[in-house]
Structure formats: structure tokens, C-alpha cells
Amino acid sequence: MSEISPEGLAEQAERAPRSEPDPGREVGQPRRRSEDARLVSGRTRWTDNLNPAGTLHVAFLRSPHAHARITRVDVEAARRVPGVVAAFGGADLAEEQGSLPCAWTVTEDMKVPAHPPLAVTEARYVGEPVACVVARHRYAAVDALEEIDVDYEPLPAVVHMEEALREGGPLVHQELETNQAYRWVFENGDLDAAFRDAPVLLERRYVQQRLIPTAMEPRAVLCEPDGDDFTLYSATQIPHILRLMLATVTQIPEHRIRVVAPDVGGGFGSKLQVYGEEVLCLLLARRLGRPVKWTESRSEGNMATHHGRDQIQRLTLAAERDGRVRGVKVDLLADMGAYLMLVTPGIPLLGAFMFNGIYKMDAYSFTCTGVFTTKTPTDAYRGAGRPEATFAIERLMDELAAELGLDPIEVRRRNWIGHGEFPYETVAGLTYDSGNYEAATDRALALFEYDKLRAEQADRRERRDVVQLGIGVSTYTEMCGLAPSRVLGSLAYGAGGWEHASVRILPSGKIEVVTGSSAHGQGHETAWAQIAADRLGVPFEDVKVLHGDTAVAPKGMDTYGSRSLAVGGIALYQACDRVVDKARRVAAHLMEASEQDLEFSGGRFAVRGAAAEGPSIQEVALAAFAAHDLPDGVEPSLDADATFDPGNFSFPHGTHLCAVEVDTETGRTRIRSYVAVDDVGHVVNPLIVEGQVHGGLAQGIAQALYEEAVYDADGNLTTTTMADYLVPSAADLPEFVTDRTETPATSNPLGVKGVGEAGTIASTPAVVNAIVDALRHHGVTDVPMPCTPERVWRALREAFREDPDPNPSAAPGAGGGLGSAGGAR
Amino acid sequence: MPRIRVEVDGVPYDDDVEPRLLLVHYLRDRLGKVGTPVGCDTTNCGACTVLMEGLSVKSCSVPAVQADERQVTTVEGLGMNGTPHPMQRAFHEAHALQCGYCTPGMIMAAIDLLRENPDPSDEEIREGLEGNLCRCTGYQNIVRAVRAAADEMRRQPEREVTP
Predict the structure, then answer these.
(1) Would you call A249 exposed, middle or buried from its count of C-beta atoms within 10 A (0-12, 13-18, 19+)?
(2) % of chain A residues with pLDDT over 70
(3) Do residues B55 and B20 share a domain?
(4) Does residue A87 sit within a domain?
(5) How far apart are CA A2 and CA A818, in angstroms?
């Protein structure tokens, strides 16, 4: 990038400087996490660790067929196994088990099939539960499953989305008379003008393979009855939503159900769900009057915990010869799997407003068709809709650059929204409040040594080196901080997107912060304490953060969509300010001063301009507790709540650059260097932010190189274990170079945006772009994901017009089989 | 039913166990030592890693009977007199954990790695921890933590060798 001069760099850096943390403030400090002490010593409360007296263990028998009629379930022999307390088939619970909820009716005519927690008459994916056993030990429960006799009449599997939509083909749900769940359309701008006679027209088909989220903690549920009340512990991201949904499904009144998310070992979207096992444990505890517990095995979970991604994307991009994009058309097939779970149909639509990326264009259209197949239902997985969109547009921008013979950075520069153009209303109808793509890109180019690597690439090409170097670019943005309730309403989502916080000052001056955002690895206990410590002017150590229990934190919308800080953190900020306002009245009374004359700084009140210090907020709290001398009409409490509903999404962005070395003889890809410069606005704890970026990168790179849920032609999942589904290890991943620019969000008082998904969203296209860039001079224009050595090798051989294998095997196997519906065929 | 005598984190136990009972379930369900979690059923993830006679084993693939007459150390047995083990401290300092589910196994595997190689390179750390999966951290800070713990443990070897 010869255009970038050192002066230019300095100028850009000046425009988006990173703020240095104020040593006197908590926000901005790389605090070590308060959570760690219990986690590094094994003193944890994972759901499976909990064992109330008399706990019974549940095991589920699951369908071995992708699609079958269930004609008989006989559990009698299982009931006679020593230690077995009960066993049930779906029909035994049909009257009470209800149907699992879908909270997002994306179109009025969306087809919503019934989804009984235990299948009653038909099983529609391998792994769907059909019967259960309750026993005194986990081994006894699993043993007894063998004694259950089920008669199945196999029905045809529906594996590929494109075939599923063909007239007259087999149906997943006979009663719906179609495999199409919905069709959702968005259009803006004059498409005809943009696409008619376009000097450059690119058409591409990309496949977002099906992924298995694979949180390290498998799911677990424990339900403890207490008379007519029930406490349900679950490894869930969403205790509040789960409570409401359990009440809705089972008709047990909401106030009789308490949901606790104790320590939760990661989620990545997979625990943003209302699962059949949760409903069934509740019903079994009610029937048996004893605590019941179910803990998933990994191979069970790979089939039964929802999957992510799985789209076929047909994309058209129209551009001028100078690289300016005129418009983009998107036509998606999105695999729903066999049922619509909590937000299944809405996931691809979270990408509907993101296929334009950071670029200006005149016209845009987006069509998504949701398709039923006889596979595990899909739903949220880290990024949820936005990684798919970002992949598409960032791959297209590289393709456009190649088409025009331009540098991929230059093509982006010619199209992106300039720093001075914010706030900017995009062609997809969102208003990006802030951003500085120039600064992030310049910083990334400098850290990456872009020019040097381009020179090396040219040299290797010249030398016809067996190992070719490729450089991949991804200048992404995403929408997070889910979500303004009005927007959710306009999209027909079943709830709002606010978040709640409470702040309590105890008589001793210690602080309890209650948040509705329930963490499972994100470090809220630390970051929330940092925010409260600053706003209230109290020591960090004086703040305790409570979450994840509907009895303790009764209001909340939970944790997903990089929303915790940008929504929940702001609720906390506002609640703290309300506490200070209340304290101000009491302090003014105690100081015999007027409220307006008081200032609050460093946790203390003082009369403005006066030398003498007044009471600390903690002293005021004690006075409020004693309540001996309060102003008339003032209640004896400083506690306050706040519920924050964001006015807009937040839009983190950044520039990721990836260099790969591809061995053209073996197809093996090695990431040589990876630079991520992210702009997530102001930062509460840089240590936590960096960790989130690292982990996000790992998952995005894993999609590009390693992971795929593979189904065979009969609808059997062949990647049921960690031996078959390749979650990368330390040896499979590179060292990352990370940095940040800081352009604050204007939509919230902390200027924060959210960081949980950025790394995942950005990295997948950066890696694939790099691989294609390494091989493009050989004629390769795409490699389907995951870009395994075999696939890279095949892409090269096809480009060389050599038949890689006269009789290509259709045998399934991780990364090499039919893949996701429609797959990389 | 076979009878085993096993010492776990310094405490002797004497128990009848089914031959098929896995060590991790013996630890969790019989001894209440739930600090060691289970992450998979194919010995891929390493979350259940403990030390047996000082060597790391995945306790989901060891029958409890194999621990007969052996000494087992779990993450709960690390540290001395209330002071955390240098590896535990390093994980905290380097932010080498997020959800923390893989952490007990990762720490035990890392301790065994340093027993074999007290001064590993980053690459040797990555290769050495290949059998332990983490979904949150991207491993970078884990590598950092293990390196820092190695430095610390080489400085004070005798105090830190035995957990």
C-alpha cells in the first residue's frame, strides 16, 4: 500500500487515539478477574456439581433415525431394572409436555411445527429424544436405556436444502405440506438501475457450513421441587427467558419457578435456548417429587445441542470499473433443521442488515428462505447471522479487487464510509453512529507489515515456490448491543431488548450490584464492579456482583449478541447515578446545604467551592439505614434500579489481516501471521477485551479451517464426537497480534460497543481470503469451508484442469463429506 | 466388587467400586471432588486431567480400579497452606481462563508439561497442551501463563515441585 505515508498514519492515529486509562479510575484498568479464584482452584458450581439429597439421574433414549414414525415405545423392561425409579415414552408425557417455543415469528405465514420435548409420533433428526429413564445413579439410568424397545418405521431423510425445496420431494413435517418455513425479503434503492448494464457483475455461491458450538461445559439441568415450587438449575445463558418459557410451556405459574444459572462453562449461543431436557426435568421433578438431574455427554450434545450457521448464499454484486460498488443482491437458503427453536428463524435475519458491510452503495436486496431438514435444529452461534453476512461481503470485496486488478485494501477504501460521514444511514436501513475505518486499517497495515508481505508474495510467485503466500483482508463491522426493543418489535421478535440493574448499598457501605445479564465466562463480576466503583467512588473490592438467579436478579434479558456491556452495563451506570442522586438529598440534609450546591467526586460529597469535605456515599448510606435524621418525605434507602433500552445498536468495527502459507502440493494451510485491530469503543477492562478477541479469532479461524458438522446421505451426523469434530487445540492456532483504535459509540454514555463476537465475525473471511489469494494466480477463485488440506488440494487440481480423482468418494467424514445441507458440492 | 485404596489430594480412601467406574466419576460422585469436570467422552478435551503418581492422566479414560494403591492429585489439591500453586497464579495473572471449565485440566496438564520440560518454548507449550481443549481463550494467554509459571517454578524449584 504505497498510498499510505507515515504522515498519513500519524494523522489517522490522531483521529482515533486510544485513551490511556486514568490511574485513579477503575474503568480502563486491566483488572485481574475476581471470578478466577474459584475457577483455578476447582471450587466451582457447575450444574453437574450440585447434588441435593435424593437426587435422581435422568438419561434420554434418542432417535437413531433421521426421520421415522414411532409406532411403539415399550419402557416396561427398563422400569424393572434395579435402581430405576421411572421410565417414560413421549406418549406418557404428551398431555403435559407442551411444545417447545419459538419466540420469533419472522413472517405472518411462517410455518411453526409442533415440537414436543419427547417425540411422540415421529422423530425428525438423529438425536431427538424419544424416551427417558430416571434412576438413582447415572450409570443405572444409562444401562436401563438398553431395555427400552422402540419400533420405528423409517421415513425418507431430507438432508439438502435445495432438494428439500423441490416440489414433490419428501417432507419433514407432512402436515405443513412444504419444507419452506418462511421467505423474508428486504429491498432498498433502485436495484434495476444499479444492476442494469453494470460494468462489473460478480455472481458467487458460498456455503456457510454447519457448526457445532461446543461450549466446554456440556449442558446439565437439575430441578429441585419444593411443594408446588421448583428451582431449576441449568447451564444456560438465559435464566430469565428460560423461566418465562418454562412457565408458558408447562403451565406451571411463573412465580412458582426459580431458574438458576450457576457457574456456566461457556455458551457461544448454544445455551441461548429453551431445551426439551429442561422442560422434561421440570416435569419429572413434579411427577416424582424428588430432585432430578440430567447431564449431557459430549456425543449426545453434538447431536442434541443446537447447531449454528448452515446457509447457502447466492450473491450478486454490481460495480463500476473504478471499483465503486453499485449494489448487492443476497439470496439465502438457511437450514432450520427439523424444528424452529427459540430464535432459529431469526438468526439469518440478524445478517440481513449487514451484507453491505462498511460500504456505501445505492441498492441492496436480501431474501432469505428458511428450510426444514431432518437435522439438528440450528440457532444462535457466536455472531449469529453477522459472521455469515460479513463473510459474504468481505469475500466479494476481495473478488472485486481481483476482477479489477486492484489491491483489496484500495477497493475497500473506495467504498467505505469515510470517517467524516458519520452518523451514516446505510443502504440496509441502519444508522451507524460512529466509526473510523481509516484509522483501524492504517494501524493494521503497519502492524502487519503489509508491503513487506506483498513483496514476499510476489517473490514466491516469481520463484514458483511450492509454498505460496496469501494475504487476506477483512474490514468488518457488526451490529451488537441487542437490541432496541422497538426494532425487535418491528421484526416481530417476541420480547424487548432492554436490560436491568439494581444497586444496593448495605449498611456497612459495601455494594451489591444485581445485573440481569448472566455471564458464563465474560467476566461481568469484574467489569461490572469496575463500572460501579467508578460511578459511586468506592473501592473495587467493596462491590459484589450478583447475577444468574431469578430469585436474586428477578429482571433481565440475559447474555447474547454482545449485549451485556452496551445494554446491561449502561443499566448499571444509570442505576449508580440514581443512587448518587438519592444520596445527594440525604447528604445535603446532613450537611445543611442545598442539593444544588453539592458536588460528588471520588465517592464524597462537598459543597462546591468549600474546602471542607462532606460525607462519603458510604457514610450517607449508613445514615439512610439508621434513618434517624432524614429529610421529610425521603425513604430510608439509597438503593436504585434502572432498566436501559438502547436507542440504537452499537457497531464495532476493525481491520483484520491474515497471512497464510499454503503448500500447493499437500494443500496444507499454515497461518503465518494474524493482525486484528478492533474498534470496540471505550473499554472497561482491556484484559477482558483482549481475551474476548483471542477467543473470537479462534472460533472464526476454526470455521475457516477446521470445523464442520457432517451428515451422510441418510441424515446421520458423522461428527458426534470431539475425535470427529475438530475443535482446534493450541497447536492448531497461531499467535495473534491485537490492537485497538477507540472511536466511542455515541449511543450510550460509556461509549462502549461490545466485543464478544467481533473476532469470530472478522476472522473467517480474512483466512479464506488469504488462502484464495495464495492460489489465485493458479486460477483458484474459491475454496469451500472448512479449507482442509484435501479441499485446498482439490481446488488447485480443479484449477489446473486435472481431475483430482476420477471417482470422487461421497463417503462422509469431517471436512470431507457432503457437509452441511447442500454442502460444498 | 473390587476394593481400592487410593490417596486423593493427600487423603486416603478405601472403597468398593464397580470395575467399570471411571476415575473421574469416582472423584466426582463418590468423593465429592467436583473440581475436576468432564468435557467429553472420547478423551479429546482433557478437562478431566489429574495427576496420578505425578503424571497427567485423563481421568475419564482411567477406571477407578487402576488408581488402586496410587496417589492422585486434582486441582483441588494444588497449592500449599492456602497459597495457590504458581500455575494457578499464572493463569489468573495472564487472564488464561474465561469460563474456566477447561482450566482444572489445563493447569494439571501444564504442570506435567513443566515436569518433563521446565523451560519450554511457546511452540513446545502449544504442542504439549495439544490434548487439552479450550473454547474461550484462543490459547494465547494460556501459553503466556505456562511460560510465566515455568519461569517462576525454575526460580523456586523445591517448594513447587510437588503440588
Answers:
(1) buried
(2) 95
(3) yes
(4) yes
(5) 44
| A656 and A764 both lie in a single domain | yes
The model carries a pTM of: 0.95
Of A644, A488, A647, nearest to A555 by C-alpha is A644
* Separation between Cα atoms, residue A699 and residue A167, nearest integer Å: 37
Beta strands in A338-414 (DSSP E): 363-372
How far apart CA B72 and CA B13 sit, in angstroms, is: 11
State the pLDDT at residue A817: 40
Whether residue A652 sits in one domain with residue A639: no
Whole domain around residue B16: which residue ranges? 3-77
Q: Give the three-class secondary structure for A171.
A: coil
Cβ neighbours of A217 in B, within 8 Å: 37, 39, 99, 101
| Residue recorded with cell 504522515 | A7
Residue A681 lies inside a defined structural domain of this protein: yes
Q: What is the pLDDT of residue A157?
A: 98
CATH number reported for the structural domain that contains residue A613 in this entry: 3.30.365.10
- On the question of pLDDT at B45 being above 90, the answer is yes
pLDDT value of residue A816? 40
Looking at the fold, whether A670 and A784 belong to one and the same domain comes out as yes
Q: What per-residue confidence (pLDDT) applies to A688?
A: 98
pLDDT tens digits, one per residue of B52-94? 999 999 999 999 999 999 999 999 999 988 899 999 999 999 9
Low-confidence ranges of chain A (pLDDT < 50): 1-15, 806-825
Q: Do B90 and B156 belong to one domain? A: yes
A608 and A724 inside one domain: no
Last residue of a domain, one of B77, B102, B130: B77
Q: What is the DSSP letter of A18?
A: P
pLDDT digits (tens, 9 = 90+) for B4-33: 999 999 999 999 999 999 999 999 999 999
Task: Provide mean pLDDT across the span B33-53.
Answer: 98
Say what the pLDDT of residue A394 is.
98
Q: Which residues of A touch B137 (CB under 8 A)?
A: 691, 694-695, 698
**Amino acid type, A341:** M
- CATH code (residue B138): 1.10.150.120
Q: Please state the separation of Cα B152 from the chain's center in Å.
A: 18
* Nearest chain A residue to B88, by CA: A40
Distance CA A698, CA A686 (A): 18
| Integer angstrom CA distances of residue A395 from A87, A334, A361, B49 | 52, 19, 17, 41
A373 and A509 both lie in a single domain: no
Does the beta carbon of A52 lie under 8 angstroms from any beta carbon of chain B? no
Whether omega before A483 lies within 30 degrees of 0, making that bond cis, reads: yes
CA distance A241 to chain B (A): 21
pLDDT band at B148 (very low <50, low <70, confident <90, very high): very high
Q: Which amino acid is at A161?
A: M
Q: What is the rounded distance in angstroms from the CA atom of residue A241 to the CA atom of residue B90?
A: 37
Whether B130 sits inside 8 A of A523 (CB atoms) is no
B78 and A41 within 8 Å at the Cβ level: the answer is yes
A 233-272 near B (Cβ less than 8 A): 263-266, 268
Residues A236, A272 within the same domain = yes
Does the ipTM surpass 0.95?
Answer: yes
Same domain, A261 and A322: no
The total number of structural domains in chain A stands at 3
On whether both A130 and A278 belong to a single domain, the answer is yes
As a dihedral over the C-alpha atoms of residue A8, residue A13, residue A16, residue A22, rounded to 10 degrees, the angle is -160
What span, in angstroms and rounded, lies between the C-alpha atoms of B93 and A275? Answer: 37
Please name the amino acid found at residue A494.
G
Sequence-distant (≥ 6) Cβ neighbours of residue A648 within 8 angstroms: A431, A433, A481, A484, A747
Instruction: Name the residue range of residue A97's domain.
Output: 47-155+219-295
Question: How many CB atoms neighbour CB A643 within 10 A?
Answer: 18
Q: Using the structure block, give the residue that is written with the C-alpha cell 445441507.
A: A821
CB A263 within 8 A of CB A285: no
- Rounded to 5°, angle at Cα A131 from A127 and A137: 100
